[in-house]
Amino acid sequence: ASVAVALSVLGTGLAVNQTEVSARAITRATSDDPAKLKQMVEGYELENHTLKNDKEKLTTENSALTTEKNRLTSENEDLAQEKQRLT
């Protein structure tokens, strides 16, 4: 299976733009070849491990960006109040 995820930062938010999933068919000839099946399983396990790590990193990054956005929003509100007070 092939999974492609395109991420982009829009303003201060993180948005998932596209997710593409496709599956490879297992033919009778493939299912009769244990070595080929083992190779496919190992490939899927490696890809799954990589995707889980990527997800964990992106989740952490998203959390940090959300925290930063909240901090900046609060700072912006404080500055707007200060500006109003001074004018």
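(the above was protein one; protein two follows)
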Amino acid sequence: MAAITSLFIFFLGLGFCVLLFGRVCYEGDYDDYD
């Protein structure tokens, strides 16, 4: 059960990072985030 939880957290964090970096790259500059 712990392995499934670890995988879930791993993929959740991975997806969050992908969305975050994708947004930064799409905006072109981190200073334009806000």
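Reviewer note on protein two: The chain has a mean pLDDT of 81.
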